[in-house]
Every structure is written in C-alpha cells, then in structure tokens.
Amino acid sequence: MTPEEHEQILYDEQHYQSFSERRFGLSTPKFLVACGFVLAILFYLGVLIFGNNSLSVLFQLEEYQSFLSDDIENLKTQNAALQKQYFELKELDSDTVPIENGATP
To answer: Which of these, 42, 102, 8, lies nearest to 16 by C-alpha position?
Structure first.
C-alpha cells in the first residue's frame, strides 16, 4: 500500500465520520445523550446553588438566625432592667398606707 493510498483511506474514513465521531469518538446519538446529561447536571447544580432551597438561602437564614439571637439577648437585658425598675416602683407604692373609710392620713 502506497502512502497516497493510505492517505486516501484515512481521508475517506474521516469524510464519512460525523463531527462528534472525529472529535469525541462518539456517535451522534451518544454525543447528544452525553450533552443532555451534562446539561441536566449543570441545571441541577444551578438550582442547588441559586434556587429557592439553595445554599445561598441557607446562609442568609443562618445570618438572620444569628441576628435574631442577638436581638433576643438584647431584649432580655432590657426586660430585666425594666422589671427591676417596675419592682422598685411597686415597692415604693406598697410603702404608702391605703386610706380606708374616707379617713385622711
């Protein structure tokens, strides 16, 4: 077999092969199935990262939970101070003698 014949055989073989067979070694239907599979996985990963139940939403909710926990601690501190003030005022009010039967002190 001469080099020219060999080149002609290779040229004919490449001429009959599709793009996917030449580049990826897959027939066209297999190539399309593989592309569809890759696109489906990429879509699924996009939903996981950016969707309604995604990782970014999880991080936002964790940040909001931290904010609420800090706010709860702040409100507890304010509540304790207000309760102390209330009980001090209540104690002052209990020192006064109630007036009975219209008598004046």
So the answer is: 8
